[in-house]
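[audit] Reproducing an earlier prediction to check determinism. Same input, same settings, fresh worker. If the tokens differ from the archived copy the diff job will pick it up downstream; this log only records the rerun itself.
[audit] input (323 residues):
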Amino acid sequence: MLNLKTDIVKNGFSIQTARRTDKKGKTIRVLPIENAGVCIHRMNLINILHKNINPKNIFLEQKLHSWEKDRDHYNLYFANGNTIKTKCVIACDGINSQVRTKLFPQIQKRYSGQTIWRGISKVNLDLVFKSSYIEFWGDNLRFATIPISEESYYWYAVKESKEGEVDNQLSIKQDLSILFGDFHPSIKRVIENSLNIQRNDMYDILPHTFPWHSGQIVFLGDAIHATTPNLAQGGCQAIEDAYTLAKIISKVGIAREAFELYLELRKAKVFQIVKQSWKYGKFSHPKNILLEYFTKFVLQVLPDSYFLKQHQSIVDLCYLKKI
């Protein structure tokens, strides 16, 4: 273990509640949280990791060009001319994985029909925003704010969209302010005070029966089980992959048995998260007023135990006892 909890808590921000509201901010449901979550700026997390990893093991600006197997090892060739010889390759190169595309071209990403904007905003909001993860629903749109410091918020906005649409970068803030113009007035301030706004179409990889390794090449994270970001579990599950795989290799070594156990322990949980996230994305975008009322009704009447069970299934690590 890297023992990073103290640094993460110190540099992150505690979330006490999660709320689903209508577009004006009227609470539909306060979701139960057993233990306060910690939200942290990705760059802060990377800096913490960087401090705790030997810099000799970090190589930047290394774009993989190709590779070949040479008896008991692999030769990795990079675009800058560098070559690395290794017995094992851990491919964690994202949903557009070059390695997966070559080894398992049948595994294709799936478009959700939705696009997402994300940003960091430095703005002073009302007290309710400062301790809550709030997701606003309305007009077949979503907007969420999550505090990451006293006056900084990570936010995202989602709408249904054709694949591949692009924004006018000169007017993106104005365009989003108009799109969410009928939402809670604080949302416009969040958008206006954002430094950079990124847009991505939302994809996942449909749960499949392909192995997570080929020879001594093993996959990790989005490269083999990408999920839509609706449950905020993409990076989390990649971290779980890494920890599980490292724990297995430390006991079994680099062997086929290690990679097969890794798949056996991780597959059920991560594919369930992929399915849940996909369903949540569809459920949270009702296409007419009747479906919108039905969605609100369902959120209001479901017992806390239902949400706690879902939360527990995401944070459960009991499978590690089998290692």
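[audit] rerun output stored. Observation attached for the diff report: The CA atoms of residues 17 and 33 lie 6 Å apart.
[audit] end
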